[in-house]
Amino acid sequence: MSDYRIQGATGEWEVVIGLEVHAQVTSNAKLFSGAATAFGAEPNSQVSLVDAAMPGMLPVPNKECIRQAVRTGMALEAQINRWSRFDRKNYFYADLPQGYQISQLYHPLVGEGAIEVAVDEKNPDATKTIGVERIHVEQDAGKLMHDQHPTRSYVDLNRSGVALMEIVSRPDMRSPAEAGAYLRKLRNVLRYVGSCDGNMEEGSMRADVNVSVRRPGEPFGTRTETKNVNSVRFVMQAIEHEASRQVDVLEGGGQIVQETRLFNPDTGTTRSMRSKEDAHDYRYFPDPDLLPLELDDAFLEECRASLPELPDAKRRRYEAAGVSPYNAGVLTAEVETARWFDALLEAGSDAKQASNWVAAELFGALNRLGRSIEDCPVSPAQAAELLKLVADGTLSGSLAKQVFEVMLETGDDAGKIVEERGLKQTSDTGAIEAEIAKVIAANADKVAEYRSGKDKLFGFFVGQTMKAMGGKANPGVVNELLKKALG
């Protein structure tokens, strides 16, 4: 349980949070038509006669959209309903050409499931389970554009009919951090499954944020719904502001009105959009143009067989192979990173050595270059070769850093760079002993101090020897020979 509390003038308040996440289904067409769904297309260039609600046009479900929603439900270990039905949600708005939205109120495709989230980044074992109430599929509305003309609003129907999964959580979250962790984990799972690309900035995943406050242990308070929040950070900000606003209203003797609100990312505040009564009448009824969906065993088996290894299972596999819990969490946080690391392991790298190198060297280099793992200048196979040269003693840690820098600049393989530039580590005891003798002769005073008990000076002698050898001496051999020479 979260210990997040809002300290009001009259005492402590607890915040209760539920999220309704709209995730655009990855498919090559809309939910009930064959129109394209590419982001950024010219307005009204991806609109079929069905999307425009021309008379006599009948919807036909896109099997791929249903398949992706079922796979998502399976990934969340949710109940898959073999029988589900589409309903019409009736309301009038200029960007809704049909005058209704096809959704699933009474019989959704997916029932209850759960998501386990890490509530403390430093302690991966500190987890909380957030309930998922349902996942239903529905069509999106179009978009009104108010900035194209001084006195008129234009309508872009490109999004009209786009397939959405609405993933509804239980009101189980008790802090902005928990909500942020839930949204990140959900996005992660969707991207692993491939059912949604998770690009919140492009609108393909957005959240409606339900917030209420109560005295700890009391019944739920009246909630507000903040619509269409499109980043994890903004969701957390919206919760923080809305919860504090509600506490101020209640402590001032006022009442919370159930309403729909909008979040302003520039100010980090919410404002009222419209009141939303409990009895808001959308006049839902079964869509007469669509038969119920009935899923057979073969379809469900194919969906389950197509699921990839999911983030939690992948993290456990990495940890079992020797990767630290922290590194395992970092490596599984994005599906592209996990794929890159898996390719590195498949190329023969040791899991623990590889994870430390990826977390420190590779991520550091990518941050410096402003590049992502998909755009990495070094392939997993090239990285595996570099790590192998470290493991077999050909390269020291410092030499490996030099070789890696050249790989980033040139794209050349590690072995080629080592040969061409003579960067191979030496274990030639004769050459190393000769340099040690020179270092000892040049630092007689420090030798005397070391022999009189100043053990910490040993590092100085190692550094001087490595410097004299141009960083190419095997550190293990240097340490061994220095101990003998210094007595």
Number of domains: 3
Q: Mean pLDDT, rounded to whole units?
A: 91
Give the radius of gyration: 30 Å
**Beta strand count:** 16
Helical fraction? 25-40%
Low-pLDDT parts are none
What separation lies between the terminal Cα atoms?
59 Å
Largest sheet: 9 strands, mixed
Percent strand: 15-25%
- Classify the secondary structure makeup into a structural class: alpha+beta
Task: Estimate the global geometry from the Cα principal axes.
Answer: elongated
Count of helical stretches:
15
Protein name: Aspartyl/glutamyl-tRNA(Asn/Gln) amidotransferase subunit B
EC number: 6.3.5.-
Keywords: ATP-binding, Ligase, Nucleotide-binding, Protein biosynthesis, Transferase
Organism: Sphingomonas lenta
Question: What does it look like?
Answer:
Strands 1, 2, 6, 7, 10, 11, 12, 13 and 14 form a 9-stranded mixed beta sheet that branches. Strands 5-4-15 form a 3-stranded antiparallel beta sheet, with no helix packed on it. It starts with 5 loop residues before the first strand and ends with a helix. It has 15 helices and 16 strands. It has 3 domains: 6-299, no CATH class; 309-421, no CATH class; 429-486, Arc Repressor Mutant, subunit A (Orthogonal Bundle). Strand 6 (113-118) and strand 7 (127-139) form a beta hairpin. The protein is of the alpha+beta class and 487 residues long. Helix content is 39%, strand content 19%. It is elongated, with a radius of gyration of 30 Å. Keywords: ATP-binding, Ligase, Nucleotide-binding, Protein biosynthesis, Transferase. It catalyses: L-aspartyl-tRNA(Asn) + L-glutamine + ATP + H2O = L-asparaginyl-tRNA(Asn) + L-glutamate + ADP + phosphate + 2 H(+); L-glutamyl-tRNA(Gln) + L-glutamine + ATP + H2O = L-glutaminyl-tRNA(Gln) + L-glutamate + ADP + phosphate + H(+). This is Aspartyl/glutamyl-tRNA(Asn/Gln) amidotransferase subunit B.
